[in-house]
Design goal:
The chain is of the alpha/beta class and about 80 residues long. The chain contains two helices and three strands, in the order βαβαβ.
């Protein structure tokens, strides 16, 4: 699941954390990120500003092509308390 960063709000980060928690409880593997056509650093700063969990990845113009590679998934046995 990904969210457009131009309208990113604190509630979006909370909702993504809740989604990951439910997926985790149901035994799903997930990869969560925020995609923007702005620089990676700007996306990361916005996530930090909203205290987003460390597993919410930032994808900006500098690294959006990395999505072609298999993302690192959060598994049912991984710790998501961040």
């Amino acid at each position: 699941m990904c969210v457009c960063v131009c309208g990113l709000m604190s509630e979006d980060c909370d909702n993504l954390k809740a989604l990951v928690r439910v997926a985790h409880e149901e035994g799903y593997y997930v990869h969560v990120g925020v995609i923007s056509f702005e620089s990676d650093n700007l996306v990361k700063r916005r996530l930090e500003h909203y205290n987003a969990a460390s597993y919410i990845k930032a994808y900006g113009l500098n690294n959006i092509t990395s999505l072609r590679n298999l993302p690192q998934y959060i598994g049912p046995n991984d710790n998501i308390e961040n």
